[in-house]
Design a protein that fits this description.
The complex is a heterodimer.
Chain A (H helix, E strand, L loop, with lengths): L4 E2 L6 E2 L4 E2 L3 H6 L1 E3 L6 H12 L3 E6 L8 E7 L4 E7 L5 E5 L14 E3 L3 E2 L6 E2 L5 E3 L18 E7 L2 E5 L8 H5 L3 H5 L8 E9 L3 H5 L8 H4 L5 H4 L11 E5 L2 E5 L13 H16 L13 E4 L3 E5 L3 E11 L2 E10 L5 H33 L5 E3 L5 H24 L1
Antiparallel strand pairs in A: 1-16, 2-3, 4-22, 5-14, 6-7, 6-9, 7-8, 8-13, 10-11, 11-12, 13-14, 15-21, 16-17, 17-18, 18-19, 19-20, 20-21
Chain B lengths: L12 H7 L5 H10 L2 H11 L3 H9 L8 H23 L14 E2 L8
Helix pairs in contact in B: 1-5, 2-5, 3-5, 4-5
The chains are: A alpha+beta, B mainly alpha.
Amino acid sequence: MTNILSATPEGGFDLGHGMMMPDAAILRDGRVAADSFWSEAQHAAERDAIYRRCWLYMVRAEDLPEPGDYVVRNVEICGVSVLIVRGKDDVLRAFHNVCRHRGMPVADGACGKAEAFRCPYHSWTFRLDGSLKAIPNQRRFPALDAGDLGLVPIAIDMYAGFVFINLDPQPALSLQAFLGGIAPLLEATTLNRFTHRDSLSYEVGANWKAGLDPQYEGYHVGTVHALTIREISVTSANPFSEFRKMAFAGPHAAGWSQGNPSWRPRADRIVQSFAVQTMGALAGRVAGEGYPSAETPASLAIFPNFMIHPGAGGWFTQQHWPLTAQSHRWTAHYYYHAPVTASERLAIAQATAFGRDSGMEDFMVMARQQKGLASGATDSFYYGEAEMLPRHRAAVIRSVLNGAQANMRSAA
Amino acid sequence: MSASLPAAFADLEPFAHLWIGLETMESRYRARQDMPFDALKQFYDTTAPRLADIMAHLDAFGSDTLPSAEARLYRMVLGLVEAAQAVEFFASARLPGAPYPHDVAVGGQAALSD
């Protein structure tokens, strides 16, 4: 058994490099090397030891309901374009989105429906199961065996409707083992019942871990979100918006918030008030179907970069994808029950706009933080005890990179 | 200016041209960044108190496709959502300190459907 659920962050974890312990000094002191957020060496090490080894969340299974449905997701830090497609046998498969003739992407756009994938360069055509169907003018490739030239597969697996891939040609761990003790919290989600979705993305001038940090703690809420979320989260009993409970499972973690149970929109905020009231009426119309509960973590963090939260009208998921050492791409999905009336559609538009703007409050801060760290003014920064989720993540990454370096040395 | 909104909301006509041509969340967000705060505030102060009436009118059509005048009215209240973000939270058209202009892509790499 790997990645066991625990109330404390000291538990061992396995990402496929063997069992490791989170870095004890970081767990104890919360002191993290500043260059872990900007150095090219750290970025390359994270690419090789984390993004090329861990299971990475891609898409919901219900986004690909029928044979031929596909999505393309780019794992940009690895330079990989992932094609995920449901076959005629109903099986989900993942492939490198790369033609075996001369390397051209065979699928265009972020998603679609296909009978087959025809390369836009020379029309080599691949079946939904990845096998090569046709080479135009094949007699000019007399030595090639078309049976060996299917799209290159990528490991894919699914848990509770969450589809993950692994760029390791031979993943050391199953998805189930990778998720370990965090799996029941994924099992408890109900995203499939929320069939209306708004999807946003934004490129942020900050390291991907800086992007994750505000999703991992409430400490910043009173300051960064003073104009927006603060009143929803901060109370006199919990002035720093601390989690009431935290749990750790291998590299993963979760935090449960206290919230402000007496929060209502200010009466002079006419549009927000209308939206919140209408969202409540929508919940009544669907009889509270599937909503997150008080037992739902406010932040469910699946290592390395996937977050699941209760949302204004259902659920909210986000990922922070590394681009360069000092930039990342934020992708987010806001899940709602399907609206029927114009009022319900408007309430959803307000909720997504509010989410976008409060997200932008975070992005502005982290882009400035990035410049501060990269200036070299300080050699370290600190996570407090209420920031134990990001502290734990930093301790996990430190150990992974140390271990990976040790392995490379011992292999040399 | 020719009438574009349902007759019951003719008094909001002076604001219609600001929003009814903007079909996407991205374009409305950009328009909000480009508008003076005073213009957003004037639009909000006139339109927000009518919101319940507007939505009651639109909800009467249920899930049916809205007639063209009502569709324009709905587009205008989607503009009100953006104006309200500026007026109700930031007292500013743009988020203080945010790069100008900026776009938050709807869909793209995150897309279900482009």
